[in-house]
Amino acid sequence: MARNLAISTINGREQVLEAFARHADAFPWHWSAQMVDEWLGDLRAVRNLKRSTLRNYQEAVQSFCAYIIDPAYGWSDECEQRFGTHPVQVVHEWNTAVHVTEAEEDAGKRALTRNELIDFLTMPTSR
Q1: Are 57 and 37 within 8 A, CB to CB?
Q2: Is 82 helix (H, G, I), strand (E, B) or coil?
Q3: Which superkingdom does the taxonomy of this entry point to (predicted)?
Q4: At how many degrees (to 10) do helices 33-45 and 7-24 cross?
């Protein structure tokens, strides 16, 4: 809420985190990069999720981990005291998909170019 994210974004990220926690079968202070790799590999291979969806999932997990390991919030110390271990960042540059194109949607979903839009709008209609 402090970052002014839409409620739908917050709810969506919460669902992603719950799905990852179920897949990992572990609490955040036991998560590892290997768990993320296995989960994302499964989502890509079995469920055939798109790269953009996987990147959104990676961002959700990465943001959550950044929050819980930030010393300003004290969660690492709290976990260390309660559970004898602490959370770590599990999403890194080396295990995330990079965004390589400006528009990676399906070709049928991309925006029209200026010329395509002009052609479309000036196309004679048949009755």
Answers
A1: no
A2: helix
A3: Bacteria
A4: 100
- Separation between Cα atoms, residue 61 and residue 35, nearest integer Å: 11
Tokens 């999720």 sit at which residue? 49
The pLDDT of residue 106:
60
For residue 123, what are its two tokens? 């196309």
Q: Are 43 and 85 in contact (CB under 8 A)?
A: no
Taking residue 40's Cβ as centre, other Cβ atoms within 10 Å add up to 22
Token pair for 53: 């969806």
Residues for the chain: how many in total? Answer: 127
Give the CA count within 13 Å in the CB-facing half-sphere of 45: 6
Instruction: Please write the tens of the pLDDT for every residue from 3-48.
Output: 888 999 999 999 999 999 999 999 999 999 999 999 999 999 999 9
